[in-house]
């Protein structure tokens, strides 16, 4: 006889009562195939003995099973599982197609942001907007740290309760040290607020700082998710051109003279998507304009860790002594986007005001992961990882740029980027980017169709951001060959 005392755990005094609990437990055993069709149910007396209930209780359970069609009782034999079961025997119940409503019964407004694409098949090559190569992440060390954090929490379970919404202190300390040592941001743990990626940082900051009707300035081409977040607050977006030195500040100043500007969103290290660096002279002027016209500078430093040739220009936040600049960053390009670790660096009073907003959407972050990542920073693993990745990515950039130049020269023009994880370039007139993307996909390469980067003044998409870090040199060569083949097929 099966160990029914283990298979049918009962809760005495609970509702529904014991007969119903026994019946439900036996149905579950039938569904899982533990009691196959035609199998005998245990005799009522033995089952009652094993479960420590009286025989009538089991009798009532069997009556319930019989009524529902699960049990057949023939004279003078033990009851058996019915051959004509109400549900499929031995398998979890399949959900019949079309049972779940395909549409909602109510109206709603969709947000402007495009949903993230599906994960590509493993065999597909991807030249995306600039992701890191997750194959390089020190997974084993991160997993070890996570395990240690998890064990620690087992001894101090309060660590797994609701905690401060600004992130684990150890990570905030380590991030402050890293931001100070790598880029001169003079922050302490009290000036760091950990978020799930910088996207959440933009969202929380927009809730706090942007009201309907406010003017938010962004670059002519900018980060679509940030645009959508500001627009979702009812902000009016004003756009400023970008040239080879970054944001065109004369345009910004004209705008500021015409109307109050609440906030400027800027990616100075490498403008997204064009990869241009905001020049040192313009940085000084930008901070002066922010003072003069009283706007907030939201500095998105999403890829500061990747510069290949020269020392980078330090962030605006490293020069700001007036509390004008709010700095955001992310480990999405350092580890991988799925880890969802981002941060805001700002005066403590701003961070204190973010906390109650974060509680409304997420209560708190992921203390175990944050602890595990803090230890990667503390013991130097993350710095070593970055040094290695930087070397690899520089090599990949060179291989990629050489291949693009050799194979796509008539169709694609670009300036090799000084840093970052992607190349920005323009396709010649006549190249139909959506068709090119389609053809590449058929050949096993995913690229954008360029619409995300298209200006309203451009009749069709012509520019593309091609991330090179995520692929090995051999994969990059293959990708460029596919691009060449697709272009030749279309022209
Ligand atoms: C301009 C820009 N900012 C921020 C991010 C990072 O977003 P998150 O930290 O939410 O992953 C990205 C990621 O691609 C980006 O391109």
Any overview of this molecule?
With 491 residues, this protein is α/β, with parallel strands linked by helices. The chain has 3 domains: 4-81, Winged helix-like DNA-binding domain superfamily/Winged helix DNA-binding domain (Arc Repressor Mutant, subunit A), CATH 1.10.10.10; 125-132 and 385-490, Aspartate Aminotransferase, domain 1, CATH 3.90.1150.10; 139-379, Aspartate Aminotransferase, domain 2, CATH 3.40.640. Helix content is 42%, strand content 12%. The chain is built from 16 helices and 16 strands. A 7-stranded mixed beta sheet has the order 4-12-11-10-9-5-6, with helices on both faces. The longest helix is centred in the C-terminal third of the chain and has 28 residues, at 381-408. It is elongated. 39% of the residues are buried. The chain binds pyridoxal-5'-phosphate (PLP). Pyridoxal-5'-phosphate binds next to helix 7.
Number of helical segments with 4 or more residues: 16
Instruction: Please count the beta strands (DSSP E, at least 2 residues each).
Output: 16
CATH fold description of the largest domain? Aspartate Aminotransferase, domain 2
Radius of gyration: 30 Å
* Major sheet: arrangement of strands: 4-12-11-10-9-5-6
């Amino acid at each position: 006889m099966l160990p029914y005392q283990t298979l049918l755990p009962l809760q005495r005094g609970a509702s529904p009562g014991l007969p119903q609990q026994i019946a439900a437990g036996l149905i579950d055993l039938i569904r899982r195939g533990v009691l196959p069709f035609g199998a005998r149910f245990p005799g009522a007396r033995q089952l009652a003995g094993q479960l420590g209930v009286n025989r009538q209780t089991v009798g009532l359970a069997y009556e319930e099973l019989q009524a529902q069609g699960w049990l057949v009782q023939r004279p003078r034999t033990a009851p058996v599982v019915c051959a004509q079961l109400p549900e499929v025997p031995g398998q979890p119940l399949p959900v019949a197609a079309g049972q779940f409503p395909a549409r909602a019964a109510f109206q709603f407004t969709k947000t402007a942001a495009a949903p993230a694409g599906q994960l590509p098949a493993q065999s597909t090559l991807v030249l995306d907007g600039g992701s890191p190569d997750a194959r390089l992440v020190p997974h084993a060390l991160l997993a070890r740290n996570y395990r240690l954090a998890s064990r620690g929490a087992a001894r101090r379970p309060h660590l797994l309760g609701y905690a401060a919404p600004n992130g684990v202190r150890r990570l905030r300390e380590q991030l402050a040290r890293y931001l100070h040592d790598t880029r001169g941001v003079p922050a302490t743990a009290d000036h760091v607020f950990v978020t799930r990626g910088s996207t959440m940082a933009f969202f929380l900051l927009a809730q706090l700082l942007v009201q309907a009707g406010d003017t938010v300035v962004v670059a002519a081409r900018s980060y679509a998710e940030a645009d959508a977040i500001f627009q979702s607050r009812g902000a009016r977006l004003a756009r400023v051109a970008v040239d080879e030195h970054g944001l065109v500040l004369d345009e910004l100043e004209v705008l500021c003279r015409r109307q109050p500007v609440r906030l400027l969103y800027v990616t100075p290290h490498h403008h997204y998507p064009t990869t241009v660096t905001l020049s040192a002279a313009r940085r000084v002027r930008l901070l002066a304009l922010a003072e003069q016209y009283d706007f907030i500078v939201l500095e998105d430093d999403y890829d500061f860790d990747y510069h290949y040739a020269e020392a980078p220009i330090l962030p605006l936040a490293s020069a700001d002594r007036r509390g004008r600049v709010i700095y955001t960053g992310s480990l999405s390009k350092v580890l991988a986007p799925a880890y969802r670790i981002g941060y805001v660096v700002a005066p403590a009073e701003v961070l204190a005001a973010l906390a109650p907003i974060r509680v409304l959407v997420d209560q708190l972050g992921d203390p175990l992961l944050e602890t595990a990542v803090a230890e990667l920073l503390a013991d130097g693993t993350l710095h070593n990882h970055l040094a290695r990745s930087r070397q690899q990515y520089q090599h990949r950039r060179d291989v990629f740029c050489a291949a693009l130049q050799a194979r796509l020269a008539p169709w694609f023009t670009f300036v090799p980027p000084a840093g970052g994880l992607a190349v920005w370039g323009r396709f010649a007139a006549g190249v139909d980017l959506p068709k090119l993307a389609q053809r590449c996909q058929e050949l096993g390469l995913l690229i954008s169709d360029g619409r995300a980067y298209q200006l309203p003044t451009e009749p069709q998409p012509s520019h593309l951001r091609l991330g090179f870090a995520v692929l090995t040199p051999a994969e990059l060569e293959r990708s460029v060959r596919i691009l060449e083949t697709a272009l030749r097929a279309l022209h």
